[in-house]
Amino acid sequence: MQDEFYISRCIELARKAIGRTYPNPLVGSVIVHNGKIIGEGYHNKAGEPHAEINAISSVADKSLIPESTIYVSLEPCAHYGKTPPCALKIKELGFKKVVIGAMDSHDKVNGKGKKIIQEAGIEAVSGILEKECIELNKRFFTYHEKKRPYIILKWAESADGFMDRDFRPCAISNPLVNQFVHQMRSDEHAILVGTQTALNDNPSLTVRNIAGVNPVRILIDFDLKVPADFNIYNNEAPTLVFNSVKEGDENNIRFIKIGRENFLSDLMDALYREQIQSVIIEGGRFTLQQFIDGNLWDEAVVIKNENLNLENGTRAPEFPLAPKKIKAFSDNVIEFHHQKTL
Q1: Given 52, 75, 157, 282, which residue is catalytic?
Q2: Which pTM does this prediction carry?
């Protein structure tokens, strides 16, 4: 039970950096000596020290390290990137034991970190709270194992199942839900809409109601119908525009050519090449229904205003699945759906 307790703390620490570590995973680390935590750390941002290094740096008395156990939510890295391999640092300092939550499926690691540690004569165990550690890095694991981003569908609908009133935008969710949605945007790597949503709503797709990081904006606009002076083209965030007209970079905008045939498959390949690890599909009914019908999603977040009847407009997507969880936000509810994908 002690190992589970400390790995749980690693997960808690790692969560502090949600939305900031791309393309790296979320990782937390704890160092324990004689039943007492003497060091903690987490990976805060790509290019900065990893969780293990931050935990080691926080230890006041380094002479205790050879008699200490280091806990880490994900297998220590074994390759040189922007920082040296953590597995080699653990070997160099001679920890007594290493406890790993989940192994790293990235082909540059994938057992190599644990092997370095064991070959140095250090005891290493893995698979502690493995399910929770994989859930923590569902975006990272999906990206590397499925070669596509982690996909979250999201929409709001009225009690009678409409997304707008008379085909014109209208407020469905309340301020509490809006804050939740902006937190979602900050937590995920990218957000995607189609042509019609961009034309109808002129959205910025940025984080406004909380302090956070703007996601990469993705626009599907085959014929480039969205005017260049619309909000999605402003300089507040990087934007990928998938279209059938042109390619190239213009300031913070990247135009990527894509065909209509095999669209979803080609889009996933392109987003993988662009290193997009997670994406919120926030388009209209047509775009959302494509992902639903293609069974190409990992989570769905459905916002419902049970006191609002719109009577006419764009119908919400057909999605006849029971939610795994329902949470009330004043007069709105949010249904959470999850697919078993990892």
Answers
A1: 52
A2: 0.91
Q: Prior bond to 23 cis, omega within 30?
A: yes
Active site annotation includes 306: no
Residue 85: predicted pLDDT: 85
Helices (H), the chain: 2-14, 51-57, 86-93, 112-119, 130-136, 138-146, 175-187, 195-201, 263-273, 285-293
The C-alpha angle with vertex 325 and arms to 103 and 160, in degrees rounded to 5, equals 135
Residue 38 DSSP label: E
Residue 127's pLDDT is 93
DSSP 334: E
Q: How far apart are CA 135 and CA 187, in angstroms?
A: 14
Q: 265 φ, ψ to 5°?
A: -65, -45
Mean pLDDT in order along the chain per 10 residues (342 residues): 94 94 94 96 92 96 95 87 81 94 75 90 94 95 94 97 93 94 94 95 91 94 97 97 96 95 95 97 92 96 95 93 93 92 60
Q: Hunting for tokens 């006849």 — which residue is that?
A: 320
Distance between CA atoms of residues 246 and 241, nearest Å: 10
Q: From CA 309, how far away is CA 311, in angstroms rounded? A: 6
pLDDT at position 298 is 97
Q: How many C-beta atoms lie closer than 10 Å to residue 259's C-beta?
A: 9
Instruction: Please answer whether residues 182 and 212 qualify as being in contact, where contact means their C-beta atoms are separated by less than 8 angstroms.
Output: yes
Residues making up the chain, counted from first to last:
342
